[in-house]
Amino acid sequence: MTAMGRSLGLGTAVVLALGLTACTVGGEPASTDPVVQLGAPGEPNRTLTPEEAREIGVPEHVDADVTFMLDMIDHHSQALVMTGYVKENTDDRDIRLLAERMEVSQEDEIDQMAQWLQDRAQPLRENGHDGHGGGHGMPGMLTEEQLAELEAAKGDAFDLLFLEYMIQHHQGALQMVQDLYQAGGGQEPGVGQFAAHVEGDQGIEIARMQEMLAERTS
Asked: Which domain of life is it from (predicted)?
């Protein structure tokens, strides 16, 4: 089911807040963030006034949302460990460009998730995972042994291993999004929009990496 389909499942009048800071800790939309009501089939969307948004009620975050954001920070942190090996281990231009794009996007997303938690008075983990296998119980996470194997590989061997392991890692992120929805999370606008972004962005990157892997193994 698409992110839009999940939203429409909430009812004909669905409210989406634009931006990760769309809700305050209390769940009410911030006055500077527009809230859009999706129209019924064939009807246009409409931007609500703050008063209308309060009357409709914007879903508040639940425990599953907080756990998802905390876990995804740890998950992203390991991806940054993996991309950190690229500069020293390969001269492949496409692999380097891919890693650079991932670093920019995942660092930015970590900042967004940390801000989401801060805005909702949710503390970050004091002893969070550093990306070196500590959170391998999460879907797609590499073990210490796999990370060591990746770090030690060079040239073509590194390129293949990097793509294989990053595809595994990204697929794990998609599973985390599905687990969020199954746990009843993702309805609060901020986390819902972020989860949909992760689902779309990493899905695109998986397809690209699969193409790159096929090119290098054919």
From this structure: Bacteria
Identify whether the C-beta of residue 102 lies closer than 8 Å to the C-beta of residue 83. yes
Which tokens in the block code for residue 61? Answer: 């975050």
Handedness of CA 204, 207, 97, 177 (dihedral sign): positive
Alpha-carbon separation of residue 106 from 40, 74, 214 (angstroms): 35, 11, 25
Q: What is the pLDDT of residue 217?
A: 94
Distance CA 84, CA 79 (A): 8
Hey, what amino acid is at 45?
A: N
pLDDT tens, position by position, 130-143? 555 555 579 999 99
The whole model's pTM is what?
A: 0.74
Q: Are residues 51 and 67 in the same domain?
A: no
In the chain, which stretches have pLDDT less than 70? 1-41, 53-57, 127-136
* Coil, helix or strand at residue 50: helix
Q: Which two tokens stand for residue 44?
A: 């246009």
**Statement to judge: residues 79 and 99 lie in one domain:** yes
Residues 26 and 67 grouped into a single domain: no
> pLDDT tens-digit profile of 26-38?
444 444 456 666 6
Instruction: Give dist(CA 202, CA 171) in Å, integer.
Output: 8
